[in-house]
Design goal:
Distance between the termini: 43 Å
Number of domains: 2
Number of helices: 8
Shape: elongated
Structural class: alpha/beta
CATH class of the largest domain: Alpha Beta
Oligomer: single chain
Order of helices and strands: EHEHEHEHHEHEEHEHEEEEE
Helix content: 25-40%
Number of strands: 13
CATH topology of the largest domain: Methyltransferase, Cobalt-precorrin-4 Transmethylase, Domain 2
């Protein structure tokens, strides 16, 4: 990272799944140097105010506008941190920053770094045991940015390939029907005995981990604070944990 001075820079950082102990020292140090923090309202709220720091919270549906505003500030010589939960490269702001960079050679010359964080998916898997211990994939179930038909196709192919699967954004108040369809698709492809884990608010005081057979899963077991993990055909329980053996497949 360029030392603070007249030259601006931009860092896109991951704040981890929720517990401040899961924020990396690199991210903490970078936040301490920032003049501006940009991000979705609840993520910016996790950054403590201090003298010399300006917070720029915004709605979750303005990612490109947020990216352009951050790049503009960095081009003006400010030290800008764009915050995401989990890891910034997993369904988060790193992609939006690079999309905003297209066609802007001036912005492409900026000092830009992507600083990783612990993903919600990996924190959820660790809380449950090791359900992602063999080959796995990760799918965002929100159809805000892609049609449901694309999601269903990916679900079916992932299930038929016998991947363990981690799902982000399973169910919200504005789109409760999507997860109903996702469960029906998974039940059809995987059968009723496949293990499914609902990991809600992982690493927070509200953490809840629930593992059931797919045939017993109901849509109300998930919300937007939940990561859902479906095991592969070899995933099994041992005591209170769930794991996928590395020898599977």
């Amino acid at each position: 990272m360029t030392a603070p001075g007249k030259d601006g820079w931009l860092a896109v950082v991951g704040l981890g799944p929720g517990d401040d102990r899961m924020v990396t020292p690199e991210v903490t140090d970078t936040l301490a140097q920032a003049t501006d923090v940009v991000g979705y309202i609840p993520y910016v709220a996790r950054v403590l105010p201090r003298a010399g720091l300006t917070l720029h919270p915004s709605d979750n549906r303005v990612e490109l506008d947020r990216a352009r505003a951050a790049l503009d500030m960095a081009a003006e010589g400010r030290r800008v941190v764009v915050v995401s939960s989990g890891d910034p490269g997993v369904f988060a702001m790193a992609s939006a920053i690079f999309e905003a960079l297209e066609g802007r050679a001036d912005w492409q010359a900026l000092d830009i770094r992507i600083l990783p964080g612990i993903t919600a998916m990996l924190a959820a898997a660790a809380a449950a045991g090791a359900p992602l211990g063999h080959d796995f994939c990760c799918i965002n179930l929100s159809d805000n940015l892609k049609p449901w038909e694309v999601i269903e196709t990916r679900l079916r192919h992932a299930a038929r390939a016998d991947f363990a699967m981690a799902f982000y954004n399973p169910r919200s108040a504005s789109r409760p029907g999507g997860f109903v369809k996702a469960l029906a698709t998974l039940l059809q492809e995987c059968g009723p005995d496949r293990l499914i884990t609902f990991a809600r608010a992982v690493s927070s005081p509200d953490e809840q981990i629930l593992t059931v057979a797919l045939g017993d899963a109901t849509p109300d077991m998930a919300d937007m604070r939940t990561v859902v993990i479906v095991g592969n055909s070899a995933t099994r329980r041992v005591g209170r944990w769930v794991y996928s053996p590395r020898s599977a497949g």
